[in-house]
Amino acid sequence: MILIGTDFSAGSLHAARIGLLLAQQTDSRVVLLHAFKAQSRTGMFMSMDRYIRQAAEQDMAEFVSRIDPELRPFIHETRVVRGYAEEVIMQWDEDQDVGLVVVGTQGSSAIKEIFMGRTANILLNKLNSPILAIPEEAVARTPSGLVFAWDGRPMDQSTIEELMEWSGKLGVSLQVMHVHTPHSDPCDEGTALFFKDRGIDVTIIPGEGDVKDEIDDYLQQFSNTWLTLIKRERGFFEPFFHDSMVKREIFSTTNPILII
Question: What was the pLDDT predicted at 248?
């Protein structure tokens, strides 16, 4: 299942289209999910909740009508749920067989809030499923390749195989790049050899400045390539990446980012 979060903005519509194209390519079913918040006030909560839900359901129907007709058959269901977006998504991730969560990163209200402050830590650190973050400027098609930004530290074989599985699902090549700064430790030889044995070279880029800028410059060499990052048990992308860099990357790049 591909879970697509929407706030009905133009940015989330663009993300939904790319998510549905991905569903078409991978023969996946899609759930469109919208979370709404209702203020609790004595004697008013139930009626306000009903009216807000009705309005959101109407907005959802309008949202679906704006999706390309050839992509609509891949929408398995639409859901309007009361709650905070990050909490609703996490609950679905725990209760359902979610293979990927897709969100737009430059929409208004709830979806943009997903990648800001406390909610970034909740979803990026605790969500079990991979996340695909799609900027509004991204090309509206599935990728021509994946670029994995490796921090140089040891990786579990299962994580590497998951990277390769995603490139296989998408039918594209996987590239691995590493930005080596004056403060970086040498890349883990075992992980590098694992990639090499599977025909995947690791490109080492000397980095004197901002790691994010080096990643952006590398991505510009390729058309319609998705950046791929992984989570780490010691904290999200620590110590090579950190939350502030990730959020800057998410809000400034025009490349979709697949986080597994």
Answer: 55
Domain range for 53 = 2-134
pLDDT in tens, 144-155: 999 999 988 899
- Based on the domain organization, do 69 and 112 belong to the same domain? yes
22 band by pLDDT with thresholds 50, 70 and 90 = very high
DSSP readout, 124-167? HHH--S-EEEE-TTS-SS--SEEEEE--SS---HHHHHHHHHHH
Q: Given pLDDT bands bounded at 50, 70 and 90, which one contains residue 180?
A: confident
The pLDDT value given to residue 196 = 92
Cα–Cα distance for residue pair 162/15, rounded to 1 Å: 23
Segment 223-233 shows an average pLDDT of 81
Spacing of C-alpha 194 from chain mean position: 26
57 Cβ contact list (under 8 Å, min separation 6): 80
Q: Reading across the β-sheet that carries 173-180, which strands appear in turn?
A: 75-82, 30-36, 2-5, 100-104, 131-134, 257-259, 225-229, 145-149, 173-180, 202-206
Q: Do 246 and 124 touch, CB atoms closer than 8 A?
A: yes
Residues 152 and 242 in one domain: yes
For tokens 């040498």, the residue is 186
Residues in the chain: 260
CB 64 within 8 A of CB 17: no
How many domains does the chain fold into? 2
Place of tokens 């004056």: 182
